[in-house]
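anyone seen this seq b4? input:
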Amino acid sequence: MTNYNSSVCTLKSSWGFLPVLVLGAFFFTGCAQVQTPAAAGLYTDTKGPVAVGDNNVQSAKTGKASATSILGIIAQGDASIKKAAEQGGISKIHHVDYQSKSYLGLYGKYTVVVYGE
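predicted toks r here
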């Protein structure tokens, strides 16, 4: 004869562990991380190259486009080269850089910077 009451008790106690598991997974994963050559847990602020265009083009104008992440749950924005060029009124690209910032893994921002004419 099977004792169903003990099975129900075991099932209920295992469901109580689920929130602990979910919170643990949340806190031990990188929340709002951004692309960077040197990552840090508390604060990150780095810049680097993305691409090089035509050397015959002047880098007189600058255009920026950004995407942000909050807690690794919400991410929004258009950090494309096309959007950055549009923002700066650039039709000929000299080169492209990026800047990434992250604060405590809670907030992250990735910015593409386009230089050109």
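Residues 31-116 form one domain. The first helix runs from residue 4 to 27. kinda curious what u guys think
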